[in-house]
Amino acid sequence: MPRSRNLVASRRRRRKILSMAKGYWGSRKNVYTVAKNAVEKGLLYQYRDRKNRKRAFRRLWIVRINAAARLNGTTYGALIHGMKLQNMEINRKMLADLAVHDSKAFAAIVKEAIK
Question: Which pLDDT does position 3 carry in this prediction?
Answer without folding.
Answer: 82
